[in-house]
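RETRY 2/3 - previous attempt timed out on the joint model. Re-submitting the same 504-residue input unchanged.
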Amino acid sequence: MTRDDIRAAILSIIKDIAPDEDLGNLKGDVRLRDQIDLDSMDFLDIIMELRKRYGVEVPEADYQKLATLDSTVEYLEPLLKSK
Amino acid sequence: MSDGGGTTAARVVITGIGLAAPNANALPAFRQALLTGKSGVRRITTRYMGEVLAGVCDFDELKYQKKKELRRGTRAGSAAIYCANEALADSRIAFGTVDKSRVGVYLGVTEHGNVETENEIAVIKEYNYDVRFWSHHHNPRTVANNPAGEVTLNLGITGPHYTLGAACAAGNIGIIHAAQMLRLGEVDLAFAGGVSESIHTFGIFASFKAQGALASHPDPTKASRPFDRDRNGIVVSEGGCIYTMERLQDAQARGARIYGEIAGYAINSDASDFVLPNAERQAQCMAAALRKAGIGPDDVDILNTHATGTKQGDIQECQAIRAVFGSQARVQINNTKSFIGHAMGAAGALELTGNLPAFEDHIVHPTINVENLDPECALPGLVLNVPKRIDKVDYILNNSSGMLGINSVVVVKRCSRRSSS
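RETRY 2/3 succeeded.
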């Protein structure tokens, strides 16, 4: 997957988890939780969907690396490169 | 509202009604459906079992919830939120000025959590039973207080909330418990009734089928047929019905519209069998409720039966009614499950509710789908297939019972429509 593919994949997951939100103006470098209504249970949904859809296991120690859209793409790029 | 104004003698009234039934989403439409023979039963496909008959609701889930809240919660929670908000709107209580710590939510449930557990097992089955795929939402969705808790989250209620697990006697028990808490002065306003999401679990259908108690009929709308000679079991339904309940003095103080007063009630246990009902205990329960109401059998105008359409259960209840009311009773007898199936935790509350308009219009809705009355169910006051107008309606008795031998009876008394009049 390219970086654009990964970004689209993350947005697709967030769209399912936060269906009331408009993701059109989401800034890549600002914390997701500061832009949309996303709590810890929602965040665990993102982790679960990455596991289900792409077989990616994010260890708890790395959760902070998924704070923004950009940092999430950065983190997932090596894990999804071959997918 | 008063602060802690309860006494054991305080009179408790119903001031708002919200409901989601398989054939209607508000009381006027529900009443109309019951007077015109409109069923809410249809075919659905359920996991592992294929096609089954069920009472399915179509209330607007997004009327009071965001999509995300709907996704996070349960079907029972969603039904409860819909019904509680509808009841609140109907009550015309100025909720913004209400002390939310003095509000209680008491909801009867037959079961809760099976839906989510079955769903999660289906998910992990797709991943070779790897439990890493089991959702973190499972516990908050399956805790027994879930439907009541979702109401408090939605309405910002900080008083007590919980469900009352009481099999199919639960809807009445939610109402009874609210009356008790209002009398004790524990709360000033109660949201009370029952909810059911049972059609979303295959297990309830499979278990009734294994027991030989799952209804079947080529025409789904005729499948639920209590008292009919050819009845062959239960139609499982979902639904909800929640009242706002207040002490009479509080309701009068705000000039509330009053649907009826909780005149009497009783709950007892058969202590005889896991599944088979016990006519003697059912009779004792009805008699106890009448004593508490301070009335005799001849004072009751309408008796709504619990009858579910099982061979033995319907006969047992008829025996119990004969024991209390005698064979020449004037009471008019009907059944709501013949329209909507068995709404489980919501059944008692929905069934009582469908009769409350009779205080004003004096019409007894019928039991439908009775083509050949079972002689063993031939009670003198049975209203069959078409509505019946009677001279007056002052008291309605609502019967419910459930597995493990639990019976609940509520007696509601007519009040003037406007408490200030």
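The CA atoms of residues 27 and 353 of chain B lie 8 Å apart. Closing ticket.
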